Amino acid sequence: MKKLLLLTAVAGLFAFSSVNAQTKAPKLSVGAEFAFPMGDFGDAADFGFGGSLQYQHPVAANLLVTGSAGYTSFKFKDIDFGGVTIKGGNAGYIPVKAGARYYFGENFFAAGELGAAFSTEDGGSTAFVYTPGIGVDFPVADKGSIELGARYEAWSADSSTSGFIGLRLAYNFGL
Questions:
Q1: What phi and psi values does residue 62 have, to the nearest 5 degrees?
Q2: What angle do CA 107, 12, 97 make, to 5 degrees?
Q3: Among positive and negative, which fits the CA dihedral 90, 94, 99, 100?
Q4: Integer Rg of the chain from CA
Q5: Can you give the pTM of this predicted structure?
Q6: Closest by alpha carbon to 156, among 5, 40, 29, 62?
Q7: Residue pLDDT, tens place only, 80-114
Q8: d(Cα 58, Cα 126) in Å, to the nearest integer?
């Protein structure tokens, strides 16, 4: 019985998304990322920057599912321990996320994604990522738009969470 319900739900989702896919096309987005650490993470890191790719696929009139991957580098502050200074340096991460984006009206959206951030450093860990956000698309061509988004992003690993405010400036290509 459970398999029949699951099969029916999946078939309904594909039927629903194929009907609505005719009204809105998928998009590929290329963007610049900027991160401003908060809380304890802000005590250790100055800022972050990087780039990302995002695929957006319509499943309903105003709802798109998203998949994204990118690279973010954080610059860490020097830390002074009673006269001994530990140099901060940089650390790189590869965040990979999936989620959804809902459009309120023509251009404004709210989004949420879940995923993982993989450290590029030796001995670095992998963190669970969650990120709610908002943004706006400014159409600039028949199949293109410029996107400006803001989000809170949190990375949880080893019983601690590092959070930051993220800004994304991107170009969306209609496919």
A1: -120, 10
A2: 50
A3: positive
A4: 19
A5: 0.80
A6: 40
A7: 777 777 788 899 999 999 999 999 988 999 999 99
A8: 30
Report how far apart, in Å, the C-alpha atoms of 114 and of each of 38, 68, 111, 153, 167 are: 19, 10, 11, 10, 17
Mean pLDDT of 152-156: 97
**Parallel, antiparallel or unpaired: strands 84-86 and 79-81:** antiparallel
CA pair distance 67, 28, nearest whole angstrom: 10
Could you list the beta-strand ranges (E) of 5-107.
Answer: 27-38, 45-58, 63-76, 79-81, 84-86, 89-104
Tokens at 33, concatenated: 């990322």
In which region does residue 73 sit, left (phi positive, over 0), alpha (psi from -120 to 50) or beta (all else)? beta
Contact at 8 Å (CB) between 8 and 1? no
pLDDT tens digit sequence for 35-52: 999 999 998 899 999 999
CA distance 40 to 162: 7
Residues 6+ apart with CB under 8 A from 21: 57, 58, 59
Nearest-CA neighbor of 125 among 137, 134, 136, 116?
A: 116
